């Protein structure tokens, strides 16, 4: 192998290594940004504070089926995280739920549901959720063995 080819291969490997490092840094920044509490993001100006008041009539999140059936979570201007992790707003003790499974949050006067990359998925009205969808009042949301819905 000539010296020129060997040097080109070394430089190519070095470039690929830097691309890999930059991709890791980008992924870590996204993880850290999503872990910052909503109150701190509002203080720093990275998100706008949600308008106060009712959002399309919903005031609470009610669990209709599963081990926590009958439980209610009041809706506030901050997001509600759902999953097995103790750091979640709504903790599900369900082996079919991911540690950070989904979140419900206010945006533009409506409530939205986002699947947070869960293993077993989230269903709204019997349809799988890909990314973020608007969540209508009374529409059943299925996470593992738990069903919940927005209620007035």
TrEMBL record:
InterPro entries linked: Cell_Proc_Reg/RNA_Proc, FHA_dom, SMAD_FHA_dom_sf
PROSITE patterns per UniProt: FHA_DOMAIN
Region of interest (Disordered), ranges: 36-57
UniProt keywords, alphabetically: Phosphoprotein
The keyword GTP-binding belongs to this UniProt entry's keyword annotation: no
Domain called FHA: residue spans: 80-129
Official protein name in the record: FHA domain-containing protein
The species this protein was found in: Actinomyces respiraculi
